[in-house]
Amino acid sequence: MVGLKEELLKSIWHAFTALDLDRSGKVSKSQLKVLSHNLCTVLNVPHDPVALEEHFRDDDEGPVSNQGYMPYLNKFILEKVQGNFDKVEFNRMCWTLCAKKNLSKSPLLISDEDAFKVWVIFNFLSEDKYPLIIVPEEIEYLLKKLTEAMGAGWQQEQFDHYKIALNTSREGLSVWELIDLIGSGQFSKGMDRQTVSMAINEVFNELILDVLKQGYMLKKGHKRKNWTERWFVLKPNIISYYVSEDLKDKKGDIILDGNCCVEALPDKDGKKCLFLIKCLDKSFEISASDKKKKQEWIQAIQTTVNLLRAGSPPPHKEARQKRKELRQKLLAEQEELERQMKELQTANENKQKELETVRKQLEAAAARAAEEEKKRLQTQVELQDRFSLELEREKMASSARGFLLQKMEEQVAQKSSELEQYLQRVRELEEMYKQLQEALEDEKQARQDEETVRKLQARLLEEESAKRAELEKWHLQQQQTIQMTEAEKQELENQRMIKEQALQVAMQQLEQLELERKEALEQYEEVKKKLETAANNTKSWKDKVAHHEGLIRLIEPGSKNPHLITNWGPAAFTEAELEQRQKSWKGKKATSE
């Protein structure tokens, strides 16, 4: 239900954003009421006008705004949706509300109906964030599907240029920009409106109506056992069959589940390319048009049953989910890589700052050491001068030697103390030097860590290249499949030409038979006339015979008087006729005597 809610929200978002705003920048309450009533109608949700009126109060802090409408939409409409509604009718209602305001006025290669189907496909492929956009990867997927449906070749280089230009300006396209892109014919050059419309309809059936396969086949009846041609439509859990492909007269359904199976049958009763669909309650015998269609249907039905057993979604929905997960994974890896690079950059900057601080400290220590060395040298020179002066004085006043010697010992002790201080400063400089060495080692380690991250980035780039190569491989396989399909289309075209030639020959034979039938009819008329003439001649001949020969008479309906019975059956004359002929014979006999 979460996925259904997301799909519904996308269409409702288009309809909501198309509503007019009042002077305060909010959607009027009347428009929201109309929208809510229409949504309840198409979603088969009970309409509650009392709750609607209570929710949209006429106060300044009421929820008549973009944010305030969502609580009502979720509580009173979306949470009550059961799925027993017509998705196409729902999308068409939302499309009607937003198309007039946003659809481009410039002439397009596609009709308004095709634009509606592209709008629904956009909602299926767009990202789950608002405002809705479709990313370049999904644009490429849709354009490839349309190109394959039109039977044309995919122009990868052309799309790469378009993708580069798109990425430099924004993340993706809105639905109206996508409709303009497809309607402009930029990626369908050389194709007429009908071909583009058929391609959009085919992609719409697959992605939106979940039509996995469709086509004409023969189905054997369960009662009369006769074979009837039907239009079959395969969906993720059902096979529906109709009288024709306009889907107006539905004849039945074949409910699919994990217990169903499909198997090929041998040819019988004059039917070829047979296969059987077994379900729990009944089985269905079906005849495909050729072996290729038979294999395609068996494979498609078996794949659908396997998906039902595994509880997996339809292939196109699973592929869309995988593409989204791949994009999210790449985005997460890119963000992680950027985060690591930022951390390394920050650590490197901190190390640089520490090194700069140590350098300044070393420079200050070196300056102090130089100053102290200068003072020491100056002190040493002064001491030497003083020693020289002292020696001069010692030579001049040997009497004061003891005093000077004691003074010199004090000075030597003072110089020893100064030397100890100097050695202490030298040790401090050596300690600072060690700290500088450690700082340099830290910098070296930081550079090694940076090199490791660069190698990791290079490995990720290589993996991305490998993935791209794998996608290219899939693309080549699709191209090979398209080429095989083109060859099969060519073979079907040759068969169609042969059948057309055979039909022309049959038409010529039919015309010849028609001529022969007309000739036979004329001969029949002539024979009929001859028979009529012969019948007339026979009648006149019988009249003559009856006139000259008294024993011979035409067979006519008998009189109601009783007939004479002879040894050979009923006589051909009555008693009155017999008496008259006896008198005639007697008269002739008397005359002859």
TrEMBL record:
The keyword Plastid does not apply. GO terms for molecular function: DNA binding. Residues 316-544 form a coiled coil. It is found in: Cell membrane; Cell projection, Lamellipodium; Cytoplasm; Nucleus. The keyword Nucleus applies. It comes from the Eukaryota. GO terms for cellular component: cytoplasm; lamellipodium; nucleus; plasma membrane. InterPro entries: EF-hand-dom_pair (IPR011992), EF-hand_SWAP70_N (IPR057836), PH-like_dom_sf (IPR011993), PH_domain (IPR001849), PH_SWAP70 (IPR057837). Keywords: Cell membrane, Cell projection, Coiled coil, Cytoplasm, DNA-binding, Membrane, Nucleus, Phosphoprotein. Its main location: membrane. Residues 210-306 form the PH domain. Phosphatidylinositol 3,4,5-trisphosphate-dependent guanine nucleotide exchange factor (GEF) which, independently of RAS, transduces signals from tyrosine kinase receptors to RAC. It also mediates signaling of membrane ruffling. Regulates the actin cytoskeleton as an effector or adapter protein in response to agonist stimulated phosphatidylinositol (3,4)-bisphosphate production and cell protrusion. The SWAP complex consists of NPM1, NCL, PARP1 and SWAP70. This is Switch-associated protein 70. The lineage of its organism: Eukaryota, Metazoa, Chordata, Craniata, Vertebrata. The gene is Swap70.
